[in-house]
Amino acid sequence: MTDLDEFLTAIGHPLRRQILETVYSHPDISYSQILTRVNISSGKLNFHLQKLEPFLAQVEGQYRISKEGLKLYRTWQQLEGRLSGTKTPKSERPGFFAFRRTIAFFIDIALILSLLFIAADVSSLIFEPAWWLWSIPVPVFLTRIIEMMVLYPPDLTVVLIRAFVLAILWMYFTIMEGYRGQTIGKMMLGVQIIQVGGARMIPHAAAIRALTKVLILPFDLLVGLIKSRKAGFLRFFGQYTRSWVIRA
Length: 248
Fold this sequence. Notes:
By secondary structure, the protein is mainly alpha-helical. The protein is about 60% helix and about 10% strand.
């Protein structure tokens, strides 16, 4: 059977498309969970899983999208968009979600920095005029974040505080993305990170992503724009760690 025949066979039945969508959205899903979500008999599920065999991978009884399956899914989504007259914008294709990811990133940064500075001094919740906001009253901890992370000259104390904050951010992104696939910001925006093969994120890959996000994000995005975008990755270290961003 040719690749085209396999492709048409896989997406030619609505139940197979539903199964593929289910596995794509829930990496490492079990047979019984697919059965419950798709709501068909086990005989029918076995039949359709056999037809989808080239596009699914099974590891220890759990299903995930294979590399070929990911290509199939992306092609199918783009084809469906073209046929319906609503071509999928680049920012919403699997692996991009640039707008959602940006908002999620700033939510996470604001959340962690705020908690750190509030924990350091509860009195920082008091409102005082901020000169950098035309003297509009804001919580003192916001002023201290701006001053400490941006404005203060980099003496030893400031450098150590900045290094501590960056280390906390790195641990936060590593733990949340490595073990949940989502930070709080990503949960709020409805996206998550998985490995290209459909598996859940692994901690060391999440650690690399987090380190480059915290230290060299502009460089990572610039190189990604030049070298990785055509391959479907927004960041170069997304391609390096073979990890996608998908809808949660």
